[in-house]
Design goal:
The protein has 12 helices and 26 strands. The protein is α/β, with parallel strands linked by helices and 463 residues long. It has 2 domains: 143 residues, 3-Layer(bba) Sandwich (FAD/NAD(P)-binding domain); 196 residues, 3-Layer(bba) Sandwich (FAD/NAD(P)-binding domain). Strand 11, helix 6 and strand 12 form a beta-alpha-beta unit. Helix 1 packs parallel to helix 8, helix 4 runs antiparallel to helix 5 and helix 4 packs parallel to helix 6. The structure holds flavin-adenine dinucleotide. The site of flavin-adenine dinucleotide has 33 residues, from helix 1, strand 2, strand 6, helix 6 and helix 8.
Length: 463
């Protein structure tokens, strides 16, 4: 009997889980191929705060999904009639994969708003390269501030503006303040520097989409730490020297972190199938209507929320992870293994890691704060991580007892992590074919572009 070809595009929360489920349930009848730009599943980009090393939050795909064929590449077209997916590999070669069943789980990318200067001067926080960039950039700003003769330059470098107080922006600001306070302690000659973090949101409270009790706890922790929380506020314009707020105040800064949310990966818009706010519309079985062989799940799919009729499940890891399981089971069912099932899930609560021993959490609706919430949050993350648990736990323990390592490696530069990208999981690299033709060293091109394009992500030309 010939084996069915199942292609899963995207190895995030939804795609990873779908692959794991399928290789368990249908391994005797299906060949599962996973197409993903990286060879890892990214759990949490907590590396920006310096508490975790990058490889801790990356789980090897081939190491944990041994019965899956991994193809490295980024899908750039889906032909639903021919049942093929075209892609570009990591070294630029093109390829095509055929499928009998397709699972689209390509996630989301940074959301832009039409604010002048933001695309040029802000950075997002969606993938590993951006997290690495932010950690380096913040470290560099403190080092440059410590050496600055001009007090205005010092102040601007020590001012960090985060826009968007959802869970991403809230965690970035809370952990960022801890990081910069620790960095300043390492500058014995400039102890007087006081890093200033601002968290802005147009909504009337932080974490506007979550339970108000989580919001209150996070607000309190942020303010106690010295973060300036500004609700009902936004950015009117971003420039090289700072940001203009909508109340007319101009804030001198070299750092604008854009956390206003995400939008579905643009790949799904190219399918020509009905969308719901950019997400691919599926039925409760995660099937694309009219195409019983195509499934979609996670942030890129608009999945009807059977717990709240008339709405769609929010873009969270909790839903993506569970939808991946249902997609895997339903693909298996379509191949003759078991019964298909509809997706139904009630939120189990949320956790927001505020760094140090602090967190805000409401597991099963029970509001928690302080160290207890911190322990629940980290316990939850450890349980949910599909690999590297001991290493992550060891990093957290070491972080509690040792000072943070205050170095910037400078490998990810501002120009290589643009805010407006369909590939936040990959850092942009110089086109070395073009460079060789021009007789230039790609590394030099990197420096040149960096210098000309730094804006708020700037390094001041010193590294
Ligand atoms: C900083 C941050 C913090 C968050 N914190 C929380 C939290 O505390 N709780 C929570 O519930 N949610 C949280 N989220 C949201 C959560 O991460 C997402 O909802 C979840 O990752 C969605 O899962 P997914 O599988 O749909 O997409 P992703 O996990 O983003 O995975 C998509 C995968 O598809 C790949 N891909 C993309 N395009 C292509 C392509 N063209 N071809 C091939 N592969 C492609 C990507 O490389 C990636 O591996 C957070 C998000 C961020 C950015």
């Amino acid at each position: 009997m010939s084996r069915s070809r199942v292609l899963i595009v995207g190895a995030g929360f939804a795609g990873y889980r779908a692959a794991r489920m399928l290789t368990r349930v249908a391994r005797h009848t299906a060949d599962v191929t996973l197409l993903n730009p990286t060879d890892y599943f990214l759990y949490l980009p907590q590396v920006a705060a310096g508490t975790l090393e990058p490889r801790r939050v990356t789980v090897s795909l081939s190491g944990t999904l041994p019965r899956t064929r991994l193809v490295l590449g980024e899908a750039d077209g889906v032909d639903l009639d021919r049942r093929t997916v075209s892609y570009v590999g990591p070294e630029g070669a093109r390829g095509t994969l055929e499928y009998d069943r397709l699972v689209l789980a390509v996630g989301s990318v940074n959301k832009l708003l039409p604010v002048p200067g933001v695309a040029e001067h802000a950075h997002g926080f969606r993938g590993m390269p951006e997290a690495l960039y932010l950690r380096d950039h913040v470290t560099r700003q403190i080092e440059l501030a410590a050496a600055a003769d001009d007090p205005a330059d010092c102040r601007a470098r020590c001012t960090f503006v985060v826009v968007g107080a959802g869970y991403t922006g809230t965690e970035v600001a809370a952990q960022g303040q801890l990081l910069t306070d620790a960095l300043v302690r390492k500058q014995p000659l400039r102890r007087g520097i006081r890093p200033r973090w601002m968290l802005l949101d147009i909504a009337p409270r932080v974490l506007p989409e979550l339970d108000e009790r989580l919001s209150r706890t996070s607000d309190r922790v942020l303010r106690e730490r010295g973060v300036e929380v500004r609700t009902g506020a936004s950015v009117k314009e971003a420039t090289r020297d700072g940001v203009l707020l909508d109340d007319g105040e101009f804030v001198d800064t070299r750092t604008l972190v854009w956390c206003v949310g995400v939008r579905p990966d643009p790949l799904v818009a190219g399918l020509g199938r009905p969308l719901e706010r950019g997400r691919l519309l599926v039925d409760p079985f995660l099937n694309v209507p009219g195409h019983p062989e195509v499934f979609a799940c996670g942030d890129a799919a608009a999945v009807p929320d059977l717990e709240k009729p008339g709405s769609y499940t929010p873009m969270t890891a909790q839903h993506a992870w569970r939808q991946g399981r249902v997609a895997g089971l339903n693909v298996a069912a379509s191949l003759g293994h078991g019964e298909r099932r509809s997706y139904r899930h009630k939120d189990l609560g949320f956790t927001v890691d505020l760094g140090g021993a602090q967190a805000a959490a409401n597991p099963l609706g029970v509001p928690l704060s302080g160290p207890l919430a911190g322990a629940v949050t980290r316990g939850y993350h450890l349980a949910a991580l599909p690999g590297n648990r001991v290493r992550v736990a060891a990093d957290w323990i070491l972080d509690a007892v040792l000072p943070r390592q205050a170095v910037q490696l400078g490998l990810v530069r501002s120009w290589s992590v643009p805010l407006d990208t369909a590939s936040p999981e990959l850092a942009r690299v110089p086109d070395d074919t073009e460079d060789r033709n021009r007789g230039q060293d790609p590394g030099r091109v990197q420096d040149r572009q960096d210098g000309g394009n730094e804006g708020n992500g700037g390094n001041g030309g010193t590294s």
